[in-house]
Amino acid sequence: MACAGFILLAQAKTGSTWLMSMLSSHPDVHAAHTSGTWNHELFSPYTQNSVPNSWNSSAVRTNIMANVFSNARHNGELLGFKALYCDGGVSFYCGLKDAFPQPAELDAIAAAGLCILHLTRRNRVAQAISRQGAMARQKTYNITPSAANHCRPPKCAGRNSSFLLPYPERLPNQLRQQVGEHEAIAKRLAEHENLRSMHIVYEELTECFKAPLRFLGVRSNVTLSAQFLKDHTARPSELLDNFDAVAHALASTEFMSDLTRLESGLDMKTSSTAKVLDC
User: Fold this and answer.
1) Pairing assessment for the beta strands 223-225 and 273-275 based on DSSP bridges
2) Contact criterion met (CB below 8 Å) for 206 and 276
3) Which helix (H) or strand (E) element contains residue 6?
4) H or E stretch including 82?
5) pTM score, two decimals?
6) Which of 78, 116, 139, 270 would be 197's cystine partner, CB 3.0–4.6 Å?
7) 66-87 pLDDT, tens per residue?
């Protein structure tokens, strides 16, 4: 059964903007990623400055969702939005009092025939560095979180300027918390009897896009192209002013292999196009 619409559910800095941009280039998909209230960050705290405080309420979000997806096609195209989450609302990117998604919201999604793409990033150290880099650009250049995502010279120094990753000794536990958040959401999705969801890994998507397109019920014999390309060329030792302290903090943990892959030049580059014919 084809999806009536979809929601991309992801933590911040997992490649979700890139993914939405790729999906939006599909001729049969309208993956909203424009500014304004009805944008791809439908339930993100980024939008809270422009919407009523009641946006924090799960009941209000559920009602909004029912209205938005009452006609889940946009000019004949499959309609999709992005929702950032943090289970418990405890990290920097989460300010919602009712952590998304609540059970009533999942019920509404399932009842509308919508599907969920649940995105994660295998390299958690890359996710942490990307997040801190965006925060550093935001503070240095006094720009919004969204602008920090796409900041380029000459407006700012770009994505490969160096910065500090604060409190490196806390990093392992922060990464474990991210993993726990992801696993809690994955369990919640898997246990919902009527909800169609698919778990996808960012690093795998950069190689092949066919599986999520088939899941959504749209053509997979197309070539996609991303409007937003976040190309990281600097290694952690070049990006982080306190790289030695970060490496020391991760040395005896399960995340050291992530740092090693990044330092070796792996898990860094994002493609601006994806051919999905023969993968």
Assistant:
1) antiparallel
2) no
3) strand 6-10
4) strand 77-84
5) 0.82
6) 116
7) 666 665 555 677 888 877 776 4
